[in-house]
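User:
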Amino acid sequence: MGTGAKRPVLGGRPLTGHVVLLCALGACNQAQPQTNATTARLDALESQVKQLERQVQANPPRPSASAAPQATARYDIACPSPWQALGAVGDAEWTCRAAVALPTGWWPNCNVTSGPVAAGLTPKAYFDASLSGTPQLKAARRLSDTDGTLGATAAHVAIYEHDLLPKPLRVLATIALRDGRAYALSCSAPPEAFPANEAIFRQITQSFRWKP
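Assistant: Predicted structure:
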C-alpha cells in the first residue's frame, strides 16, 4: 500500500485516524463481503504485505534526519539505533522498524497515524469505538488497558492481539487526543517476539514529544 493507495473503507466511508493503524498494514483494505471471503481475504492481505515489502526495498531507509515525521507533523519522535527510520509509509505519518526481520519475515515496527476526532471523546472511548466499530477487529484479544501519557498528554495504553494477517500480531497502542485530532502510536510484533521487543517499543513511545 503506497502513499497513493486508496484508504481503507468501512460501510462505504473511509477509515481515518488510528483505525487505519489498527487495521495493520492496510488489512482493512479489502473488498466488501464476497463468496469464499476467507480465501480472498488472506490473498488480499498477503498481496498487501508483499507490496509494502517491495515499496521498502525500492526506497531503502534514509538517514534519521530525512526520515523524521512529516514537516506538518505536530510532534517529534525518535527511532533508536540500530532500528531504521522509514518516514511515512502508507497511511502512517512516521515509521520505525527493526534493523533485521524475524525468521518469519516480519519486521517489528512502530508507526504513528492521526486523524480528526469528534469533541467529547476520551482516548479510551475512542479506542473502544474503533475496535467495536471495525468488524475485522471485534475479535481482537485485549490483554491490558491502562491510563498513560503520550508526550505528557493523557492517553490510553492498550495491548491487544489480532489475526488480520496470516500470522497473529500483538500490538502496543498508545492513543492521545489533542487539538481535535486523535494520535495513535502503535508498535507490533508476533506474540512470541513481543517480549523481546517491548522495551524498545516503550522507549520509542516515551520519546514522543509535542512541538510547541
